[in-house]
Amino acid sequence: MNPFSILLSYQAQVEAKIEQSIAALGAKSKVRDACEYALRNGGKRFRPALVLMVAKTLGKQVDASEAALAVEFFHTASLIADDLPCMDNDDERRNMPSLHKVFGEDIALLASYALIAEGYRYLAQNSETLKQQQVSFSDRCDHLCVLAIQNVSYNTGLFGATGGQFLDIHESNLSLSALRDILHKKTVSLFEISFVLGWLFGGGELEKLPLVKKAASHFGMAFQIADDLSDMQQDLKNGRKANMGLLMGVEETVKMFHKETVSFLTVLQELDIQGQELEALIKTLIQKTEECLAVQG
């Protein structure tokens, strides 16, 4: 059973959009086929589903599917890079050979570049889609696209996923503050992109963007802490030190997890949106984490 069954309808939308996007990748080539392989290599589609869910909370019934697709492209590109021998050197991704094991490192790099570029194209395309639909905020769609590009650039660059990957590889003094910095840049950054894109293309009030980012920060950190708690034994076996549970111990890590979830629910109330699904999602994460801890004993 999928513990995040609340996401199923959104995930189905994302899968359908991915299939459409593959047809738009152009004539067959090794790079094009590598992009298709990476996009079709499973995954929960959690982050793009969040884009659609956040947009829905605003109640304007607009199409944010291209922005959701962009998030999946950015995320997939980051996974391709993470798996490379010069990075995490992973031979498998989701029980399948990593992209570079099938197509070679050169093609893997080019595929990651292509997916990033396509992601930005889909952001621009979503802006045009909203204009064509004559949504109530169509007069500011160009400005929303600029804000989206600014946010994605920040969160995928040196202050986000790229900087986080560097620290993950090269950080020698893994203190609590250093680990939080790594997790924020590597994981929370992509959740911020999801929340912000859903808010922007869903027609949210721009004045509330700082609150949206705050909500994303608490949600993303709770998600990563939960992931760390469930991966403790595996990370210990593999000698991976960047795990909150291993660094702080289970009891303190669980306290931090609950602090983040409570903070997320508080910010959700401040946003004053139809956030029942987001509330249910974080409560599902809490339940899943508690069940995992109970099994671990």
TrEMBL record:
<dbReference type="Pfam" id="PF00348">
    <property type="entry name" value="polyprenyl_synt"/>
</dbReference>
<dbReference type="GO" id="GO:0004161">
    <property type="term" value="F:dimethylallyltranstransferase activity"/>
</dbReference>
<keyword id="KW-0479">Metal-binding</keyword>
<keyword id="KW-0414">Isoprene biosynthesis</keyword>
<dbReference type="InterPro" id="IPR000092">
    <property type="entry name" value="Polyprenyl_synt"/>
</dbReference>
<dbReference type="InterPro" id="IPR008949">
    <property type="entry name" value="Isoprenoid_synthase_dom_sf"/>
</dbReference>
<dbReference type="GO" id="GO:0008299">
    <property type="term" value="P:isoprenoid biosynthetic process"/>
</dbReference>
<protein>
    <submittedName>
        <fullName>Geranylgeranyl pyrophosphate synthase</fullName>
        <ecNumber>2.5.1.-</ecNumber>
        <ecNumber>2.5.1.1</ecNumber>
        <ecNumber>2.5.1.10</ecNumber>
        <ecNumber>2.5.1.29</ecNumber>
    </submittedName>
</protein>
<dbReference type="InterPro" id="IPR033749">
    <property type="entry name" value="Polyprenyl_synt_CS"/>
</dbReference>
<dbReference type="GO" id="GO:0004311">
    <property type="term" value="F:geranylgeranyl diphosphate synthase activity"/>
</dbReference>
<keyword id="KW-0460">Magnesium</keyword>
<dbReference type="GO" id="GO:0004337">
    <property type="term" value="F:(2E,6E)-farnesyl diphosphate synthase activity"/>
</dbReference>
<keyword id="KW-0808">Transferase</keyword>
<comment type="similarity">
    <text>Belongs to the FPP/GGPP synthase family.</text>
</comment>
<dbReference type="GO" id="GO:0046872">
    <property type="term" value="F:metal ion binding"/>
</dbReference>
